[in-house]
Amino acid sequence: MEYEREPREELLGLVRSLAERVRVDSELGRPLSWLTRVDPAVAVPKGDDRVRALADVPGPIPSAAPAAGKPGRLEALREELEGCGRCSLGTRRRCLVFGEGNPRAELVFVGEAPGADEDEQGRPFVGAAGQLLTKIIVAMGLKREDVYICNILKCRPPGNRNPLPEEIAACEPFLIRQLEAISPRIICALGSFAAHTLLQSEAPITVLRGRFHSYQGIPLMPTFHPAYLLRNPGAKKQVWEDVQEIMKVLRNG
Ligand code: SF4
């Protein structure tokens, strides 16, 4: 099998992933979310000192000295991730897709994982689904450079298959620190995997979308992934309704 892994390597990767997840959950002062589902309504508020301090707490990942400001913190995190092999996807990628956009963005879009085009270019949402996302952003009266775009996973799953739980567990701590560094006013979760991971919910995206939830005190709007819209253009109306809710919050400062 092309993607078969040595059992020992797989076990070590899983242990490393769980240890990292426990560390982050502990620092956030929240229950072990990989064992228990957490109601976002009782999540730690954004202003909590433990959350603010997260990016400054040295972790087991070798890291560069923390740089000041949002751009510096993001860049330091990007450097940490270079060469990452915390899950098996690291051995198969062409490019790591960290994320891009305004490090001080008020709005962050979080998708699922890079596809073939993204893996090739090292940039998020540059394929057909990305072009549709760009159109949505423009329709909101914004530019791609105004927002920040990233994914739950930073490396492409083979054949664009769904992310595995151990891959999400390995990569999510980096997303948590990425969002903490940007500290946006609103997060838009694109598709089921992003919504389920960020909200620690297993409810269908059809149930979650259309209203704001809370991620660490930040309003989070789940909506359909642009790739889903390419297959189901009829759902564009619902996505437009969702982004209009986002625009209302952004406009009301
Ligand atoms: S998907 Fe994330 S955890 Fe896995 S190798 Fe890539 S950057 Fe590392």
List the helices and strands and how they pair.
Layout: H1 7-28, H2 49-52, H3 69-81, E1 100-101, E2 107-111, H4 116-121, H5 128-139, E3 148-151, H6 165-182, E4 186-190, H7 192-199, H8 205-208, E5 213-215, E6 218-223, H9 226-231, H10 236-251
Helix pairs in contact: 1-6, 3-6
The protein binds iron/sulfur cluster.
Can you describe what's shown?
Helices cover 43% and strands 10% of the residues. It is of the alpha/beta class. A six-stranded mixed sheet has the order 1-3-2-4-6-5, with helices on both faces. Helix 1 (7-28) packs parallel to helix 6 (165-182) and helix 3 runs antiparallel to helix 6. The structure holds iron/sulfur cluster (SF4). Iron/sulfur cluster is lined by residues 81, 84-87, 89-90, 96, 153-155, 167, 170-171.
Key features?
alpha/beta; six-stranded mixed beta sheet; 10 helices; 10% strand; globular; binds iron/sulfur cluster
